[in-house]
Amino acid sequence: MDAVVWIVLGVLLAVAEIFTTTLFLIMFGAGAFAAAGAAALGAPVAVQALVFAVVSALSLVVVRPVIKRHGRTALESGEQPFGVEAIEGSTALVLERVDAEHGLVKIDGELWSARAYDTTQIYDPGQRVRVIKVRGATALVWQDDVSSAGELPESRG
């Protein structure tokens, strides 16, 4: 019976974690599942509680920081970006007119659908633009020439 109580507690903590996404409650859920294992092996309640406390604490101290570190973007962690992260910040050549609704650019030899980051801007074929953000398969672009662009979107207030 003790094992069932620990499993229910573990499931409740795991479900609660879905709503918080802090990687805090799930560590206690892991402790509850470990305590359920101890209960299934016939350990007394005091040992089950000790297993719960030790596994939860170790999860918080050892596992959670590792998971959070791997969850950061490459730019945040100082590593070499790849995939979509590598595209953000790169320059692109406009192939078809880019406005707030549609467009086509070439980024590192690949064709990407594009939209203007600033919805009031329009970029004509042949212009160089900078990729500010990627949403799905669409690059949001901004004029690349800083001297004629005025200010970059990050500095707009």
From TrEMBL:
List residues of the NfeD-like C-terminal domain. Answer: 85-142
State its location(s): Membrane
Task: Give the Pfam families listed for this entry.
Answer: NfeD
Q: Which domain of life is it from?
A: Bacteria
This protein's membrane topology, according to the annotation, is: Multi-pass membrane protein
Keyword field: Membrane, Transmembrane, Transmembrane helix
Main localization of the protein?
Answer: membrane
Transmembrane parts of this sequence: 44-63
This protein's record includes keyword Membrane? yes
Instruction: Return the PANTHER family for the record.
Output: INNER MEMBRANE PROTEIN YBBJ
Name of the protein: NfeD family protein
Task: Give the source lineage, highest ranks first.
Answer: Bacteria, Bacillati, Actinomycetota, Actinomycetes, Micromonosporales
